[in-house]
Specification:
Length: 383
């Protein structure tokens, strides 16, 4: 009777001793035992080789970006080595430094998410194993930051998925709403003051000239789903090299976040400024009082008329400035915005694709507002 799959070495020895098969004729008990052990090991090797063959089929030599079913492949570390980013996670600053690397920023959002998840898993495991109170405290800070980045990454993934599922018009609308949300949160939050305070600690209060929003978030034509949120701090330090201070920029980037959870990139500009549009972030209501102190002048007493007038004027200035920024930036005109809303309905009445196509085909001048409105309707409704 053949031995089953669960048979161990002892079962093989017993079977071989009792067997009257021709191959065992004249064999001693010792020889039969040796043959039994050899047969058991051969059978075991056969199973191992079979498993190896199955794993070989499941795991291609080069990663495909998707984990094969039944594979032990680790998605991040076992994929194409040229596509990996070296990571450190023993402290919060280590994680910030890793996520500030050019090699990380050059990756797609999907790849960045994999790296962030890997960091989170590793720092969580290290925190769980740590015994020393000081080490545990350091790793807890790192873990909290990793969890923040992971949640921010999840939100972005959901946002990108929503954008991909919608049509062109809905995508533009969703993206533009998100851009405006970022700007509103930048203006409303204390992030400008936090960044200014951090820079002042390094170069002194007098050296900081202002904190500004820059980059694609200010331009609806250039802003896209994977755009960074960029903040520039202008400083004036005579004994420091002119231009961007890479060291301070690197240290402050990916440290501050808006309420949405998105982290900002900070660049420090000494005696120079970035190209393109800049919008100054609101700072303290007491900017004029601080300016007086810098000049060596004494500020007014809190109960004085001058102090109350200054406070009132500061609030009014902040309100008007906010309104100006909202009008100028949040609702700036886009190439997608109609120049003369309602022009088609006034001329054509009830709109349909066939009616609009017919009207466009009759036009000689394709550069008028009416012609552009016809084309816009076809782009959004008749694809």
């Amino acid at each position: 009777m053949p031995l089953g799959k669960k048979a161990d070495a002892g079962d093989y020895v017993k079977d071989f001793r009792k067997s009257d098969a021709p191959q065992f004729k004249g064999k001693s008990k010792k020889k039969r035992d040796q043959m039994a052990i050899a047969a058991y090991l051969a059978k075991k090797d056969e199973v191992v080789n079979l498993v190896r063959e199955l794993l070989k089929e499941a795991d291609p030599k080069k990663g495909t970006g998707k984990k094969p079913k039944g594979s032990d492949r680790r998605l991040y570390t076992d994929e194409n080595p040229k596509d990996t980013v070296s990571v450190k996670f023993s402290s919060r600053q280590d994680i910030v430094d890793t996520l500030n690397k050019k090699s990380f920023k050059a990756k797609s959002h999907a790849r960045q998410s994999q790296i962030i998840n890997l960091i989170h898993q590793r720092v969580r495991a290290a925190y769980g194993r740590a015994k020393d109170p000081a080490v545990k405290k350091r790793l807890k800070t790192a873990l909290d930051y990793a969890e923040q980045r992971k949640e921010a990454s999840k939100k972005k993934t959901q946002r990108l998925k929503k954008l991909k599922e919608g049509d062109t018009k809905e995508n533009y609308s969703e993206l533009e709403q998100y851009r405006k949300l970022i700007l509103k949160q930048l203006i409303d939050s204390k992030i400008g003051k936090q960044i200014r305070n951090a820079v002042e600690d390094k170069v002194g209060k007098e050296a900081v000239e202002g904190v500004y929003i820059i980059g694609s978030v200010l331009d609806s034509k250039k802003f896209h789903e994977e755009s960074d949120i960029d903040i520039a701090v202008l400083i004036n330090v005579p004994n420091m090299d002119k231009g961007t201070n890479e060291e301070m920029s690197y240290e402050l980037s990916q440290t501050y976040s808006i309420p949405d959870g998105s982290f900002v990139d900070v660049s420090i500009w000494n005696r120079s400024k970035p190209l393109g549009k800049m919008v100054k972030l609101n700072e303290s209501l007491w900017a004029n009082i601080n300016a007086k102190k810098k000049r060596g002048e004494k500020s007014s007493h809190k109960n004085s008329k001058a102090y109350k007038d200054a406070k009132k004027a500061g609030k009014a200035l902040k309100k008007s400035k906010m309104k100006e920024i909202i009008l100028d930036v949040l609702y700036e005109k886009s190439v997608h915005d109609p120049v003369k809303p309602g022009i088609l309905k006034k001329r054509l009445g009830t709109l349909s694709c066939s009616k609009v196509r017919s009207a466009k085909s009759k036009l000689k001048n394709k550069g008028t507002h009416y012609a552009k409105a016809l084309q816009r309707y076809l782009n959004y409704h008749c694809q």
